[in-house]
Design brief:
3 domains, GTPase Obg, 422 residues, GMP Synthetase, Chain A, domain 3
Length: 422
């Protein structure tokens, strides 16, 4: 089964909690704090795999959670870090954040690794908080939560040449004759429902990849017919082969077909309108084809190369293949989105680190930075609460709440945790 879209939920593993411990060994006087740090949570990592051609694996399993880091221990022993969860993904897949629409990654190479949900760092143990003024801290951090979001995956096939045209013009027959691809072909009316890839061998070891893009119709750029389902697969191709039923056997005018499909490609993406095009006049073995071919040559007037072929008999296909192999080296590859493959770090905007809104007597403080501090604080430990209060003061949240008119006894909600204002 061919699936070129998927929506999945990913969450990096939470970091382990730091430990509070003190050395109490017989011959170690004043051993001091010895609580170790928690381990980092495992990340969710995508790895490009050129052997995959579909996103079907993500249809049946849609939730992926990273391995949690272990908690720190006494004697300054750090917790074990979580193991990364590695997911193989077809080369040519674009990864979007489903909530924001942001493009996270474009998997274009075999073995390319992209961290799509980083694991949280481990919390610091009390040994890390020792200072000249605090020789015996009882403070430690909880682990940082892993990054979580819904992702939208879109597969865009990587091919050198793309066959486009109306249904039943012979695209599947052409790719079956020039490559080892075995698409469904029949002598009745139907359209291919999945793209087909085939490697075309020329000579002296030269080859190129050809993709049969399922049949388009008028209005495809708006989603009509198969619409956007397969138009995006043309975005990766360097050369477009526009296949026409030059015989008019489907009771359509080949020149009108040419204009409609060219308009659909242009309306879908202006970049596609500038892509090199070779016109393939197919079904030359059917009576009436010569007349339409002459009309086509007069209409095009040399603006595009025209190859008259018969996919059914194989006539003209060899010349077409040699021509493609000759011009492909001079055609530059489409521009690919360039994105970092390392952890994506979101930095807080210094002008808007938090927001405060009021619902009756409840003041709600929102912001990724302060919400992270809430999740990493042990509120059952006095030292941790004191540190959290200092963080609120340093971030300016205390002053902002006073400016909003907060009074003694009002409640404050930060990250789902409620506090009484005193």
């Amino acid at each position: 089964m061919f699936y070129d879209q998927a929506k999945i939920y990913v969450k990096g593993g939470d970091g382990g909690a730091g430990a509070v411990a003190f050395r109490r060994e017989k011959y170690v006087p004043e051993g001091g704090p010895s609580g170790g740090d928690g381990g980092r949570g495992g990340s969710i990592v995508f790895v490009g795999d050129e052997g995959l051609r579909t996103l079907v694996d993500f249809r049946y399993k849609r939730h992926y959670k990273g391995d949690r880091g272990d908690h720190g221990q006494a004697k300054n022993m750090s917790g074990r870090s979580g193991t990364d969860t590695v997911l193989r993904i077809p080369v040519g897949t674009v990864v979007f954040d489903d909530g924001t629409g942001e493009t996270i990654a474009d998997i274009i190479e075999h073995g390319q690794r992209v961290v799509v949900a980083a694991g949280g760092r481990g919390g610091r143990g009390n040994a890390r908080f020792m200072s000249n003024t605090n020789k015996a801290p009882t403070l430690a951090e909880n682990g940082e939560p892993g990054v979580e979001h819904w992702l939208r995956l879109e597969l865009k096939l990587l091919a050198d040449v793309g066959l486009v045209g109306f249904p039943n013009v012979g695209k599947s027959t052409i790719i079956s004759k020039v490559s080892a691809a075995k698409p469904k072909i029949a002598d009745y009316h139907f359209t291919t429902l999945v793209p087909n890839l085939g490697v075309v061998d020329v000579e002296d070891g030269e080859s190129f990849v050809m993709a049969d893009i399922p049949g388009l119709i008028e209005g495809a750029h708006t989603g009509a017919g198969l619409g956007h389902e397969f138009l995006r697969h043309t975005e990766r191709t360097r050369l477009i082969l526009h296949v026409l039923d030059i015989s008019g056997s489907e009771e359509r005018d080949p020149l009108e077909d040419l204009k409609i499909i060219q308009d659909e490609l242009r309306l879908y993406s202006p970049v596609l309108a500038e892509r090199p095009v070779v016109i393939v006049a197919n079904k030359m073995d059917i009576p009436g084809a010569e007349e339409h071919l002459q009309r086509l040559k007069e209409a095009v007037e040399g603006s595009h190369e025209i190859f008259a072929v018969s996919a059914a008999t194989g006539a003209g296909l060899q010349d077409l293949v040699y021509h493609i192999a000759k011009i492909l080296p001079d055609i530059s590859a489409p521009q690919i989105i360039s994105l970092p493959t390392e952890h994506r770090v979101t930095k807080a905007d210094p002008d808007k680190r938090f927001e405060i809104r009021k619902e009756e007597d409840l003041f709600i403080v929102e912001g990724p930075e302060i919400e992270k501090h809430v999740k990493m604080t042990f509120f059952d430990r006095e030292a941790s609460v004191y540190r959290f209060q200092n963080i609120l003061k340093m971030m300016g949240i205390d002053d902002a709440l006073r400016a909003e008119g907060i009074k003694e006894g009002d409640q404050v909600d930060i990250g789902g945790v409620k506090f009484d204002w005193v």
